[in-house]
Structure formats: structure tokens, C-alpha cells
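Me: Here is a favour to ask of a fellow structure person. Could you put it straight underneath, so I can go through it closely?

Assistant:
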Amino acid sequence: MATARAKLNGKSEIYKNYIGGRWVKPASGVLMENRNPANIRDLVGLFPASTAEDVDAAVNAAIEAFPKWKAMPAPKRAEILYRLGQILIERKEQFATDMTREMGKVLKESRGDVQEAIDMTFYTAGEGRRLHGYTTPSELPEKMAMCMRQPVGICSLITPWNFPMAIPSWKMMPALVCGNTLIIKPAEDTPLSTINLVKAAEEAGVPAGVINIVMGKGEDAGAPLTRNPGIRLVSFTGSTDTGRIVAEKAARTGKICSLEMGGKNVIMVMDDADLELAAEGAIWGAFGTSGQRCTASSRIVVHKKAYKKFVEKLTGRVKSLRIGNGLDRKVEVGPVINEDAVRKILYYIGVGKDEDGATLHFGGNRLDRGDYKYGYFIEPTIFTDVEPQMRIAQEEIFGPVVSIIPCRNLEEAIEIGNGVIYGLSSSIYTQDLNRAFRAMEAMNIGIFYVNSSTIGAEVHLPFGGTKATGNGHREGAMATSLEIFSEWKAIYVDYSGKLQKAQIDNQ
């Protein structure tokens, strides 16, 4: 097997694109640095700065590989995925360590990211024997009517940096088991984790050209993946603004487009809630992955009767959080991804300070001294007495910042929860089953939790949201993801020995 990497001056490593079963340099010869966000002195490696020329080569390789991969029986494609899942299990710790080093989240979260890829791989492999169509009675005698699934064709997968192995697996595994070939472009901040996934797939026996990886910046390598005429489907996860651009470009050439975008998720804490449990869930939801999740709990709506006590409990827990390099097993909150993220988050903290009525209750600072000097660290930040219409309660910050909003009752909590442009995830903490079911029904979102945080999706349920969170597609859960990566074919078999004209003969 060809190698994806080579030594650079005995220290750093150079990585390559994977096109047509070969690890190749980018056509431009230009490389990008990838540095550890907890310590930018640590150079993870140099990665291709690809362009449309590399994308074209990858698309051509995927087109060439498609007929044979499509012709392979789905159970045989699934067997390769089973082997891939086993390789991921064997290398989980190595891949998690690589992920923490390039992305920053704490090691236990990186292990969870790799585990999600493992879960998705095995779950999808099981569907290799369940790509069901159905038969149905024909309206005419001596005629059979049925339908079956067929692959879409060539798929481009554009993935984000915050879950650099899990999210690629959500897209890659269903695409593969359905018989598609693909080109994946990981985020420029976290290419190594996707390389690790692709290398494992290569070792598992995925044929040359079926999976191709092209690395680079969005405007240089991502944009060509939305307009290349050889691509039939674009699957994108990222910001809402970028997703709209992707959709517009894909529509110009009639591509299928699946979008998973932003969120402004809410935890509703009722007056009868277990406040210890609610505070624990809020910590995990708001500050897990340093708040860099589309499902992060960036708003907490708390009943006025429980407001003061909840804020006290939450603040006490936040004060004890250990911040630092995610490779340190004692650390609970790592850095944010890069300098641009730092600037954006600090900007929104400034917005919160300036908004009339809101109180910066805790945090709000960049940590840049001592052990934090060479990293992108921001204190977990709490705003209290926030009004629902304030910008910090409406706009996605994507960092360790949470807004706590008081409410009078369940109805007001639901109104506040629904009062944003997004509709991804929400949760309620209550001991009242009736309240839980009312909220479950009333929230216009794609994911709902009772007595848990807004994060923690499992691969066998649909993942996605309403409104500006996406364009109606879902990931995970075969019933939904297969709908993205396969198309229906209706089949009629007439064994009557004569021409039957359907509705014309059936009057």
C-alpha cells in the first residue's frame, strides 16, 4: 500500500491527496500548515492546498471506478465495511490522539468521535443486506410491480472540523454501501483525521477510485466540488451561510444537495427539575468540545422559581472546570479551533456586554498567559438575565458561551425555544411527564431530549433539523440516509403476452 505521508527534514510530515488509489501531491505543489490549536508551536503536518485541477482528477477517478463498485453486490460491499470497522477499533487510541492534537478537543471526546465512526460503519454494513425495495399488486392481471434502490452516482462530501471522523463516516458509509463512489474534502483545520479514515478504508479493501480525498480551502477545493458536472450529489455540513452558497452552486447543475448547518439550541429547566442533573447537562452541552458543536446548548431557559439556585449550581461547576491541552487527561475543556474562532467568540462576548440588560456573570476572557500562551483558549462564559431577542441569544456563536434566560412557565419556555431561525436540538429538564410530552410536541426541531443535554445523538436515529438548520434531509438512521445516497427505480414485469395499457385498459 502506498504511503500517505513522508518525512520533512526528519521532523514534520507531508501528506498527500488520495486519488484513484494513489497518494499524490497536489497539482499546484502548494502545502498548508496544520498546527495544534492548544500549542501552535506543534506542527501536525503539511497538507495539500488543492485546486480545481485536483478535484477534476478525483472526479474522473470516481467516475472510472463507479461501474465496478455499483456492480458489486451490496452484501459484498458491506463485508468491506465490516473489515473497516474492525480496523477502526484496533486503531481507536491512535486516531483519537491524532484528532486531539489537530482539533483540540479533550481526548475522551476524540475517543467518542472515533467510536461514532465505528458505530456508523458497523451499523451501515448491516444495511448491505437490507437495501429493501418492495413489491406491490399491479392494477392489471399477469403483471408484477416492484421497486428497488440504485446508487446516485458520484458524490462529493464536504465535512467540518469539529467532528473530523464521525461526520465523514455519516456520509461516507451510507454512500459506499449504496454503491456510490465519492470525493471527500475535509476541513482545512482537521485533514489528518479524515486521512486516517480513508487509509483504514484502503486497508480494508475499498477498491481504487471508490474513495478519493482532496484537501484544501473551501474556495479552492470545496467550490469545485459543488459545480463539477461529473458529480451528482453534494453532501455538506458546516455553517448556514456557506451552506446556502453550496446549495446555490449545486442547483445550477441540477445536483442533489444535502445540507446540515447551524443551530441555536435550548435547554429548558422547569421549576420541578433535578437542578444538579440539569447543571451537569448544561455544562456538558454548553462547554463540551468548547461549545463547538452545532447541537451545543447555547441557551438555557430557566423557570424563575429555579433561576437563582440553578445559576449558583452552574457557576460553581464552571469555576472548577480544568482548561488546557486536550491530551492532558485531567483537562475538561480544550482550545477553540483557530484564531478566527477566537476573534468571533470574543466579538460576541463584546456584543453581550453591550446589550442592555444582560450580565456577564462569569468568564469572558481569552486565556493567553503561562500554559495558554501558544493556544486558542477562551474561558467558559456565562451571561445571565438575557432577553430572548438579544443577539447572543439569537445568533450562533460556536464557542464556550451560554446565555441564561428566565421564563415564567412552560409555554413561555417553548416560545423562547422556538424563537430562533434554527431548529436542530432542544431538551427539557422536568419531573412532570405531561410537561415533557407537551414540549416534545411543541418544539419545532429535529432532535429532542428529556432530562438530558442537547448533545449525544446516536447513529441509528435521524440527525438533522428544521428551518435554517438544513434543507430537509437527515443523516444517520438508514431510513433517512439511504434516501440521500440512493434513488428509487420502479420496475414492471408483464407476463400476460399482450400489450396492456395500464390506465387506458383499466377503465
